[in-house]
Amino acid sequence: MGVRLIVNGHEHDLDVPPEMPLLWVLRDVLGLTGTKYGCGIAACGACTVHVDGRAERSCVLEVGSVAGKRVTTIEGLDPAGEHPVQRAWREMNVPQCGFCQTGQIMQAAALLAENPKPSDEDIVQALDGNICRCGCYERIHAAVRLAATGV
User: Which residue, 41, 89, 95, 122, has fewest beta-carbon neighbours within 10 Å?
Assistant: First the structure.
């Protein structure tokens, strides 16, 4: 049993079952705890990471299905926290409790990589599956709009 992953630019040869959820590999095996467990059924978005640049829910993604692909977590988005979305998040004081924020940021970063100038509807649609229990959606959407300007 072995899976080779490329996480945040680093290769890892892991002795884990290929059906193990990527979320648990990231958190429990690699110690990358920025990716959060929220629901376990891909319904909340807290576990969002990028796989080859696309936003994916790591709680239901078998690690074997991403072998050899590039996985990016919040820790690898910009290690200094200077990605435009991260800067906009700070500028707009988005977090309240903060639990959903890594998933929200990863979803927003994937949107802007694909669509650098999204409309308000594009933003709402792209982040629709990411739940914020504190209801910070107005600040979240404002931060994505700000990030699109290249903050």
Answer: 41
How many angstroms separate the Cα of 43 from the Cα of each of 56, 90, 127?
Answer: 11, 26, 12
CATH, domain range 3-77 = 3.10.20.30
Q: Specify the CATH number of the domain 84-148.
A: 1.10.150.120
Strand order in the sheet with 3-7: 10-14, 3-7, 70-72, 48-51, 54-57
pLDDT digits (tens, 9 = 90+) for 16-42: 999 999 999 999 999 999 999 999 999
